[in-house]
């Protein structure tokens, strides 16, 4: 009787454990890089028109991200709202006709062609209409002309290979009121016309306006509220649309990073509760000078000062090693985060490189002494052009980043016991034990 009781107890415990582990493991939804690519396709499409901060489409993306956080049951951070608003100066399309005219005695002598002979660079629009002559201060250089009038200071420059489709990031405090790209032929015409006493009149179809925009923040809450959180970020804004109707979709920069963290939060939300909070931050206005990350970091410095921050900006291109980027302020500092990522890469035989530049959102955290690293595939050949498209995104490259990130998150946010429970080998072992327990009486009866 006692042996039968022990047998039944062993059978019951094994069955219950196996059932629990199967339920636990199969409620977890794995990270799927095809979901990442699908979201990249959506975010870089005409629907979102380049996601320019301050635009209707940018606000639509913020809504999209908020809904994804809600679907995954992430909690709002700090208060009841996922969106964290802030004001900034944004470029706005005026829907006016651009022109560059050469005037002689007040009459139009020649009008140059927008998009062929000249085009605005997006770097600043404090002014958008200028008329100048040799009576103003003109400084001519090899590939540029600097013009200073009584009201404005602006710059013409000839870009590399005279390609007028590149758009710079927007910086409202840039020292020039506007920057205009021109061909070398246009530069020569301007200089010759000024020397002949003629006037130049130019209008570009953008202006600056203060708008309210949002970061979007959600949290997978951890068990230890005293532990420093892990912060995972990516910027979702890009460069919008130019006056010719070209959409700067920014598939790599940075629909890729945004889509990566959206898939990451979806997958992790189905996993066990972490030991510490994991904060997901979709940042805005990176293309305006890292404004969203600056806003978030400064506003939450006391809560995240001891955190590790992993930022994703341009992931998913083959032929490039994973770049771990930190700000110049961290060049001579010991980074536990970077050290751990390098160790994982070496263990996995994954090629990587380390750069120290302030060219992504990690820099806003590094400047405050917070340990932050950006992940990127540093293919700069198409970024900030209309050619940064889904065509070049590769699933294997996305997976290569995920392997590193997932291992880091598992090591730093979950206990060994939790990871043991999610080991499918344990299910196999318990299944074998259960099979033996069920088969043992039958085998004994046959004997």
TrEMBL record:
GO terms for biological process: proteolysis. Residues 215-405 form the Peptidase M28 domain. It holds the Pfam family Peptidase_M28. GO terms for molecular function: aminopeptidase activity; metalloexopeptidase activity. InterPro entries: M28_fam, Peptidase_M28. The chain crosses the membrane at residues 419-443. Keywords: Aminopeptidase, Hydrolase, Membrane, Protease, Transmembrane, Transmembrane helix. Signal peptide: none annotated. Gene3D superfamilies: Zn peptidases. It is an enzyme of class 3 (hydrolase). Its EC number is 3.4.11.6. This is Aminopeptidase. It comes from Clostridium disporicum. The gene is ywaD_2.
């Amino acid at each position: 009787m006692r042996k039968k009781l022990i047998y039944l107890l062993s059978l019951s415990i094994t069955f219950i454990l196996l059932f629990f582990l199967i339920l636990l493991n199969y409620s977890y939804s794995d990270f799927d890089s095809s979901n990442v690519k699908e979201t990249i396709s959506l975010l870089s499409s005409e629907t979102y028109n380049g996601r320019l901060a301050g635009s209707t489409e940018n606000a639509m993306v913020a809504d999209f991200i908020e809904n994804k956080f809600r679907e995954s049951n992430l909690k709002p951070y700090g208060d009841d709202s996922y969106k964290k608003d802030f004001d900034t100066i944004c470029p706005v399309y005026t829907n006016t006709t651009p022109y560059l005219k050469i005037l002689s005695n007040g009459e139009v002598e020649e009008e140059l062609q927008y998009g062929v002979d000249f085009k605005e660079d997006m770097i600043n629009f404090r002014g958008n209409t200028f008329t100048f002559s040799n009576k103003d201060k003109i400084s001519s250089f090899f590939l540029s002309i600097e013009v200073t009038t009584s009201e404005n200071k602006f710059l013409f420059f000839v870009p590399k290979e005279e390609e007028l489709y590149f758009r710079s990031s927007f910086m409202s405090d840039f020292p020039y009121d506007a920057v205009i790209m021109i061909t070398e032929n246009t530069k020569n015409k301007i200089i010759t016309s000024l020397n002949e006493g003629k006037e130049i009149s130019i209008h570009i179809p953008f202006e600056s306006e203060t708008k309210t925009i949002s970061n979007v923040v959600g949290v997978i809450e951890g068990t230890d509220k005293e532990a420093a959180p892990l912060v995972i970020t990516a910027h979702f804004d890009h460069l919008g649309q130019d006056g010719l109707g070209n959409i700067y979709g920014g598939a790599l920069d940075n629909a890729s990073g945004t889509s990566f963290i959206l898939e990451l939060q979806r997958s992790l939300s189905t996993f066990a509760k972490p030991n510490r909070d994991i904060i997901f931050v979709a940042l805005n206005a990176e293309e305006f000078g890292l404004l969203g990350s600056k806003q978030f970091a400064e506003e939450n410095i006391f809560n995240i000062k001891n955190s590790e921050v992993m930022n994703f900006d341009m992931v998913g291109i083959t032929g490039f090693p994973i770049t771990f980027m930190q700000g110049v302020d961290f060049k001579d500092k010991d980074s536990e985060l970077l050290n751990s990522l390098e160790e994982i890469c070496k263990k996995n035989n994954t090629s990587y490189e380390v750069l120290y530049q302030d060219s992504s959102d990690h820099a806003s955290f590094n400047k405050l002494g917070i340990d932050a690293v950006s992940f990127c595939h540093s293919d700069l050949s198409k970024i900030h052009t209309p050619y940064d498209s889904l065509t070049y995104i590769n699933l294997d490259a996305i997976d290569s980043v995920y392997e590193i990130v997932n291992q880091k998150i598992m090591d730093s946010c979950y206990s060994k016991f939790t990871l043991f429970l999610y080991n499918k080998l344990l299910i196999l072992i318990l299944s074998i034990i259960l099979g033996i327990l069920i088969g043992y009486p039958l085998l004994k009866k046959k004997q």
